[in-house]
Amino acid sequence: MLLNVIERGPEEIIPEQVGRPPIVLLHGLFGRARNLGFFQRRLARTRRTLAIDLRNHGDSPHGLMDYNVMAADLLETLAHHNALPATLVGHSMGGKVAMTLALSRPGMVHSLLVADIPPAHTGHGQFGLGEQMLRVSFPPFLNRAGADRLLQHYIANTDVRALMLQNIEVGENPHWTIGLREIVDSMPNVESWPYIPEGYTYPGPTLFLAGGNSPYIRREHYATMRRLFPCYRLELIEHAGHWLHVEHPQKFAELLENFTEST
């Protein structure tokens, strides 16, 4: 499946950057490529960048999901755009997609940054949210303010509601733009971690970023992280939760830029 891509790069050729791998940005569950625009614009001042809508998200096609299928989507899309090997940067679900591709096709991944997700069954805690969203009854017309009021009945958290609002087509005949039914049906796979055959590793540079207040990456995951990604290192963003790039965008951008420049 070819995925929707937002591509940005420097306005002029920068000789010292010629030949460096493109940087690929992958969003999390219920997100979309344009959510990462702040980071993409910064990176694109000197590097070719591609922000990608994963299947069922943004403007990409819909279909049932698991990480092997989503990694295959990503590989096909990057090959189509002549963007391999690439540096992969993924948050949450996007991080699992990036790790799956790195482990299955390590030669296609130059380096890897994974934001607040381990290579393990985690559970995103969003199965109930997806079920609730399927029950939303849209009126014949809806503007942005009306959509926000409608979702307040289902989502109390302001940040989560703002994320979901981006997935509604407002105006006449409002509707979800994402493959919500497919996401809900695939949620056990999204919360899981694919089977990785014995001996599969990704030997390239790998950085895990964890929110200091997030429960996702835990000490019991470290041995698996070391086995699968022997060159990994871990950095904490203090006082950040799972949405560390939203809560502390400047710190996240600094760590991201340092990593992509050093590799």
Kindly list the characteristics that best describe this protein.
single chain; 263 residues; alpha/beta; Rossmann fold; 7-stranded mixed beta sheet; two-stranded antiparallel sheet; 10 helices; 11 strands; 36% helix; 17% strand; globular
Mind sketching the topology for me?
Elements: E1 5-8, E2 23-26, H1 37-43, E3 49-52, H2 67-80, E4 86-91, H3 93-104, E5 109-115, H4 127-134, E6 141-142, H5 144-152, H6 158-165, E7 168-169, E8 171-172, E9 175-176, H7 180-191, E10 206-211, H8 222-228, E11 232-237, H9 244-247, H10 249-262
Parallel strand pairs: 2-3, 2-4, 4-5, 5-10, 10-11
Antiparallel strand pairs: 1-3, 6-8, 7-9
Helix pairs in contact: 2-3, 4-7
Pfam family, one: Abhydrolase_6
Organism: Komagataeibacter rhaeticus
Keywords: Hydrolase
What does this structure look like?
This is Alpha/beta fold hydrolase. GO terms for molecular function: hydrolase activity. By secondary structure, this protein is an alpha/beta fold. The chain has two domains: 5-122 and 193-262, Rossmann fold; 127-185, no CATH class. Helices cover 36% and strands 17% of the residues. The protein has ten helices and eleven strands. The protein has helices spanning 37-43, 67-80, 93-104, 127-134, 144-152, 158-165, 180-191, 222-228, 244-247, 249-262, and strands at residues 5-8, 23-26, 49-52, 86-91, 109-115, 141-142, 168-169, 171-172, 175-176, 206-211, 232-237. The strands form three sheets. The chain has a seven-stranded mixed sheet, with helices on both faces. Helix 2 packs across helix 3 and helix 4 (127-134) packs antiparallel against helix 7 (180-191). It is globular, with a radius of gyration of 18 Å.
